[in-house]
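Example 5.3 — Purple acid phosphatase
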Amino acid sequence: MPVGFTRRGSRHGMSGHSHLPISELFKCPNFASPVGKLPSAGCGASKKARQMKFSRSFVAIAASLVVAVASLSRGCSAGNTSAFVRKDQKAVDMPLDCDAFRVPPGYNAPQQVHITQGDHDGSAVIVSWLTPEKPGSSLVLFGTSENHLNFSAKGKVHRYKYYNYTSGYIHHCLIRNLKYDTKYYYVVGVGHSRRNFWFITPPKVGPDVPYMFGLIGDLGQSFDSNRTLTHYESNLRKGQTVLFVGDLSYADNYPNHDNIRWDTWGRFIERNAAYQPWIWTAGNHEIDFAPEIGSTLPNTNGSRQNCQK
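Solution (predicted structure tokens):
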């Protein structure tokens, strides 16, 4: 679970990263936690929890985490480093009833809310979420005042099947023509199930414009995963956008690639991913090649539809 921070002078370097919403990656898909109390990493510690089967090499990589800040503008590198070192021990998954995976209140309330950058220069955002019972509304209300959401955009909805799992209704909504370096408030859901969030757009692209990226990879959903995300959120040098370098939920470590663990992971990261863009790269744990359950084509495009019933 490497975590780091990188400061860049130009945002053009982001073009090599996936701009797909997380739901497209794992379902077919502030800086510190801005609302409420962070889920406790100790939830359900006394209950039986399944141990994730990480390889020895992965544990060795995950055991020592470094947060680095580097100024890369004009080819110059300098910065400060602070250490984040985890114990060298086997990771244990958080149980399904952990607070980190809690379902938001309200019938058919949007969950797993997350955003990603919607274009190459930062003037668009894709908002994604899931409604569990029925499609509901795919409308996003947004604006620069919390009390005056003067704009709206309508998204698209779909669902998928994977072996014995049927997803909820997955929404993606593209918001365009946003102002740079501006805080926007947005709402998804209707009535008692409405949920409120916000994000800040990046500054206009330029050769000497500072911008801070957080780097995260191999996150999973263990107790150590919770500590890793909490460390990122609480660090004084907060990233403005997360570059996620692959291996998201580790759902493929479960029997039949249990896609319920994509739902729990989506709820787990919402506390940060709903407030700042996470830009995704698929890793080997997102391939979903499982001939034993009929998934016979290596799936690297995130569609997860090659295993339909």
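Remark. The first strand starts at residue 3 and ends at 8.
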